[in-house]
Amino acid sequence: MGETMDKEKPEYFIELSHNNGKDRILFPVLPEQLEIKRKGRGETFDIIGLGQINVIHSKELSEISFESFFPANGRAPYVIHSALFKSPGYLVKKISRWQESQYPSRITIKAPNMKLTLAVSIEQFDRRAVAGTDDIEFQISFREYKFYAPRRLKVGTKPAAAAGTTATAAKPTTTVKDAGAKRPDERVPATTYKLKPGENLWSVAKKQLGDENRWKEIQKLNNIKDADLKKLQAGMMLKLPPKK
Fold first, then answer.
1. The pTM is what?
2. Which residues pair with 144 in a beta bridge?
3. Residues 42-83: pLDDT tens digits?
4. Is the dihedral of CA 77, 83, 136, 22 positive or negative?
5. Half-sphere exposure (Cβ direction) of 208: Cα atoms closer than 13 Å
């Protein structure tokens, strides 16, 4: 589905995605004005098709907001791509669920001379029905989401100095290097798991939860008796506790 949408996207668009890009929507009507702001230095200019854009040069968290509407008629001339049209109810349900998921989404904006993609939280999503139609007007705002994790360090040994140096310098020395951060994982953790041949609750806890000692939580959640632990069949669907 993702590859199909990528091939059919219009030249300019605003896309919102979730769960590491597995679920996506296009906003069917581009807003007249789009605001991207941070506290600090910035510059503002107009972009055809999207209105005013504020480009910021500071490192504070970005805030993005705009107003538009979800039309009930997918063939209206202002819809950016009728083939990818979704009903107002479908779009409202999707965005509301992503907002409540407690996981970041990602917004991608493509306009003339500009392309922006940013991990964000959905801060505000207000909507109202348009009198006399099935259209839904909305206001939406996002805040940049920063992934955070402990930095990984690599400890190594530096070879001894060449001959002719002092005895102190000739000893090997320990070095510590920053290994860098892993690529942020935007995937929403699975809530169920289908047991494969040869697996048990211990291996599932290690693979899916990152901690083999949590196998008892899976046992309790699925009401598995101790006597049945060695009788689990491949294909069994297990409920998983939240990943810590």
1. 0.59
2. 120
3. 556 555 555 666 655 546 788 999 999 999 998 888 898 888
4. negative
5. 25
